[in-house]
């Protein structure tokens, strides 16, 4: 009996999963397109995302993160701008070279269109405001290129916005220019993303944005106490703007205690990481790839496994605080050196739906979590 009912549930889960429009708000695959020249049409032996696995996992829309690492490319200036532009070109090229697989999208309507035509919608978000180079006109430029969200800061604070990743961010929120950035994004219809920003910056965004605010890839601080996660108070405030918390899959940001264990491992493997970096003769981006490969191998061996159930703990927490309309998913695939054991790549997304179903979520709830809530926010934000 047990076996039979489990089989029925698995079939239901897959059907519900296939029917839903699934929107992942954050993956770092654009860097792989640029630095490794990966061909996303084929099943890749590494990483977390390609078209083959996306189809297997039922993914309908992927926001590609346009991430400018300020320590490698500058916190502004021509190199930061160039780094953003080459990634944007690489994402746009997906749809140009393989229109049978990808559709470049900027709206909720575009995503629905791509899904109806069995293509994957490719969208873009800027991770950190370094590439706007303290010039409001650049926000419009990136908007014209197709960028539809931006987080003011990644792990390094800017003059106009504090980050959760450094000491300056502890007291730094948005200055006058930062508030102008939020106004310009609201005017254009570009979503404001609070992932990675400092607490003061979070509150300045909430108090200044006239449109729904999102977290593209974040967790709950009440479960995993890391500075870049959201407190209960923040989750409630973000939901009040009409926005969505997209729960990240990265173990460090969802599993209690994982970050302290990781710090210990990082200290121990530091010489190995350094050697790998020195042995790599390529540019700064390739050296970073070499370092990350060592980290990924060591984390897999030495850090505790995390399962999809922990992701759903965070989803449950947001739902409990803010209701079913304010939660989504932001994997951070291809931007992290560890993944849950049963959500190793985009191909495993049905396991998330199975777990949601097991916890008692209805098909309507699951539709909202997997993408429906973000489609609503996109429609709201693009309204003039
Ligand atoms: Zn990130």
List the helices and strands and how they pair.
Layout: H1 2-19, E1 23-27, H2 29-36, H3 51-57, E2 61-67, H4 70-73, H5 77-97, E3 102-104, H6 108-116, E4 120-127, H7 136-145, E5 147-151, H8 176-188, E6 191-193, H9 199-208, E7 213-218, H10 232-240, E8 244-247, H11 251-254, H12 258-279, H13 284-302, H14 308-322, E9 327-329, H15 349-358, H16 363-382
Parallel strand pairs: 1-2, 2-4, 3-4, 4-5, 5-6, 6-7, 7-8, 8-9
Helix pairs in contact: 1-15, 2-5, 7-8, 12-13, 14-15
This protein binds zinc ion.
Residues 127, 195-196, 217, 332, 335 line the site of zinc ion.
Q: Strand content of the residues, in percent?
A: 5-15%
List low-pLDDT spans.
none
**Helix amount, in percent?**
40-55%
Biggest sheet descriptor: 9 strands, parallel
Q: How many strands appear in the DSSP assignment? A: 9
Q: Measured on Cα atoms, how large is the radius of gyration?
A: 20 Å
Mean pLDDT: 96
Order of helices and strands: HEHHEHHEHEHEHEHEHEHHHHEHH
Distance linking N and C termini: 55 Å
Ligand types? zinc ion
Helical element count?
16
Question: What would you call the quaternary organization?
Answer: single chain
Structural class: alpha/beta
Can you characterise this structure?
With 384 residues, the protein is α/β, with parallel strands linked by helices. Helix content is 52%, strand content 11%. The protein contains 16 helices and 9 strands. The protein has helices spanning 2-19, 29-36, 51-57, 70-73, 77-97, 108-116, 136-145, 176-188, 199-208, 232-240, 251-254, 258-279, 284-302, 308-322, 349-358, 363-382, and strands at 23-27, 61-67, 102-104, 120-127, 147-151, 191-193, 213-218, 244-247, 327-329. α7 runs parallel beside α8 (176-188). The termini are far apart. The model has no long low-confidence stretch (mean pLDDT 96). The chain binds zinc ion. Residues 127, 195-196, 217, 332, 335 line the site of zinc ion (ZN).
């Amino acid at each position: 009996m047990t076996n039979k009912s489990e089989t029925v549930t698995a079939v239901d889960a897959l059907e519900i999963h296939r029917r839903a429009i699934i929107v992942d708000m954050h993956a770092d695959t654009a860097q792989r397109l640029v630095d490794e020249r990966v061909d996303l049409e084929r099943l890749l032996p590494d990483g977390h995302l390609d078209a083959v696995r996306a189809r297997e996992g039922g993914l309908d829309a992927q926001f590609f993160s346009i991430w400018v690492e300020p320590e490698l490319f500058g916190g502004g200036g021509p190199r930061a701008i160039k780094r953003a532009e080459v990634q944007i070109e690489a994402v746009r090229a997906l749809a140009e070279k393989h229109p049978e697989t990808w559709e470049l999208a900027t709206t909720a309507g575009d995503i629905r269109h791509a899904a109806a035509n069995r293509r994957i919608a490719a969208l873009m978000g800027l991770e950190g405001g370094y590439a706007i180079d303290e010039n409001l006109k650049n926000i419009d430029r990136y908007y014209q290129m197709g960028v539809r969200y931006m987080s003011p800061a990644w792990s390094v604070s800017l003059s106009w916005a504090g980050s959760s990743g450094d000491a300056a961010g502890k007291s730094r929120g948005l200055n006058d220019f930062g508030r102008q950035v939020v106004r310009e994004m609201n005017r254009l219809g570009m979503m404001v993303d609070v992932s990675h920003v400092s607490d003061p910056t979070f509150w300045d965004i909430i108090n200044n944005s006239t449109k729904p605010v999102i977290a593209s890839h974040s967790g709950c601080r009440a479960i995993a106490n890391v500075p870049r996660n959201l407190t209960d108070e923040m989750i409630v405030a973000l939901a009040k703007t009409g926005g969505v918390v997209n729960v990240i899959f990265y173990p460090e940001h969802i599993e209690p205690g994982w970050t302290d264990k990781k710090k210990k491992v990082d200290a121990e493997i530091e010489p190995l990481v350094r050697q790998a970096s020195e042995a790599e003769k390529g540019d700064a981006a390739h050296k970073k790839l070499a370092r990350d490969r060592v980290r990924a191998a060591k984390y897999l061996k030495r850090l505790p496994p995390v399962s999809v159930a922990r992701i759903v703990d965070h989803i449950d927490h947001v739902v409990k605080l803010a209701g079913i309309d304010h939660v989504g998913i932001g994997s951070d695939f291809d931007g992290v050196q560890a993944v849950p054991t049963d959500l190793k790549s985009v191909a495993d997304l049905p396991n998330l739906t199975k777990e949601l179903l097991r916890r008692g979520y209805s098909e309507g709830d699951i539709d909202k979590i997997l993408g429906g809530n973000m489609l609503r926010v996109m429609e709201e934000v693009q309204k003039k």
